[in-house]
Amino acid sequence: MKNWIARLFGGVDAPASCTPVPAAAPAPQAPVQAPDRAPLDHGDAWWRWLTAGAAAAASTARAQRHSQLVLAELDRLLDSPDHAADLVPRVPEVIPQLLRSLRDEAASSAELARQVARDPSLVAELIREANSPYYRSSGQVRTIDAALLVLGRNGLRMLLARAAFRPLIGTQNGRHSRQAAARIWSHTEKCALAASLLAPGLGADPFEAYLAGLMDDLGLIVALRLFDGMLDTDALPQDPAFVAALLARTRTLAARIALQWELPPPIAAAILGAAGSGPSAAQPLSVSLGRAENLALLRLLLDDGMLAGDDPAVASLDAGSARVLGGLVRL
């Protein structure tokens, strides 16, 4: 499975030697968030929202052993990202074929339409996207040709990338990964869109930002698959120190899988730097992704009534970020 993402995005040439992604050190214990208007702790708030439908694990010696087993297995996978990549499914072959065609400027619209038509679900998504509020068409779009004209090549690239990544996150069988899959995908989709919208103003490439957003949560899916195999209850740990350590490892794992799949190296660097520390933290792509993570979470918390519209985390946004936050409500 190592090279399917490389094929998916048209054979992006990775350098012969990529800078290794450092192992994630266990994060220090995060403070317990005080009630009522306390500053938003992103990692804690993200995990609480993600696991809102799961029971909280009792703080027992057995639960702690399970938590440590998950962290230890994540550490092992950090050294073997190809094994982690095997924990996610493959994508339909039509997707990489189309993306290769999109890299070929000589490929005609008729050829693109012919390839899209091979996958009925892709046709439906294409028509739906062309009729969405993001594309202000003068009339109802009903044909593949008309939809391709509305979206353009870049819009089609993003649609195909989203279609490729959705089964990686949305198709899960274990109790924990299945329960969280829809929530993770909702965050992933919002994060990718927000990153692509923020990127131009920060000097980053919008499509690379979109791909980084799609990759950002992949380590969490792997972690939840581990919970499926190691926990025999519906409860998930909520200890702040464990959550911080888990999220640090899953971020690093997502970056290592991105390199394993031979995505452009800046995407892995952005996933690491989005946390706000490390050598890539100041790079435009990292800044785009970090802000997008925050906006995606704010949108989810607002939509679920877990955050007030006048909360300082929302009220302090600059005008551009506020516009992106408003745009995410449609997803």
Structure description:
63% of the residues lie in helices and 1% in strands. With 331 residues, the protein is an all-alpha fold. Helix 5 (94-103) runs antiparallel to helix 6. It is globular. The chain starts with a helix and ends with a helix. Residues 1-37 have low confidence and may be disordered.
Short characterization:
With 331 residues, the chain is an all-alpha fold.
| Rg over C-alpha atoms, rounded to the nearest angstrom | 20 Å
Strand order of the biggest β-sheet: 1-2
Count every beta strand, where a strand is a DSSP E run of 2 or more residues: 2
Mean pLDDT: 79
Largest sheet: 2 strands, parallel
Poorly predicted segments: 1-37
Portion in helices: 55-70%
Number of helices: 16
H/E series, N to C? HHEHHHHHHHHHEHHHHH
SS-derived structural category? mainly alpha
Beginning-to-end CA distance, first to last residue: 30 Å
Per-chain topology:
Layout: H1 4-8, H2 42-50, E1 55-56, H3 61-79, H4 81-85, H5 94-103, H6 109-116, H7 120-130, H8 144-170, H9 175-202, H10 206-215, H11 218-230, E2 235-236, H12 240-260, H13 265-273, H14 284-303, H15 312-315, H16 319-327
Parallel strand pairs: 1-2
Helix pairs in contact: 2-14, 3-11, 3-12, 5-6, 5-8, 6-8, 7-8, 8-9, 8-10, 9-10, 9-11, 9-14, 10-13, 10-14, 11-12, 12-13, 13-14, 14-16
